[in-house]
Write a structure and sequence with these properties.
120 residues, 3 helices, mainly alpha
Length: 120
């Protein structure tokens, strides 16, 4: 009887040791995976920070001004190129409702449809 009980205890101990061993190495594998993911997240955050800094540099007014001066042949605006208010044409007189006139013109037109045949 004691031998059977001892044998069952040894088997239970071995099964428990195997389960603990498997859980331990599964948790180690999970910890390694989490470490790799944390490193990947850190690398992505660093890349985002670099991209934001590059965006800030490229959209700064001084940088854009340098690009404009280097690549665009802009000339200062002369006073001769400006007009006065007297040179502008007069505003046309507003006579009635412009959209209402268009709608009335459409209503007054004969209605044509693309029917199959003409009435006899």
């Amino acid at each position: 009887m004691f031998r059977l009980a001892n044998l069952l205890m040894v088997v239970a101990l071995l099964v428990t040791a195997a389960v603990v061993y498997q859980v331990k190495y599964a948790s180690i594998a999970d910890a390694e995976r989490m470490s790799h993911l944390r490193q990947a997240i850190r690398a992505e955050r660093d890349a985002i920070a670099v991209m934001r800094a590059e965006w800030a540099r490229r959209t700064s007014p001084l940088y854009v001004q340098g690009l404009v001066e280097r690549h665009l042949d802009l000339q200062p605006l002369t006073v001769d190129g400006m007009s006065t208010l007297d040179d502008l044409p007069a505003k046309p007189a507003v006579g009635g409702d412009g959209i209402g006139g268009i709608i009335e013109a459409l209503v007054d037109e004969p209605l044509t449809t693309s029917s199959v045949g003409k009435p006899a």
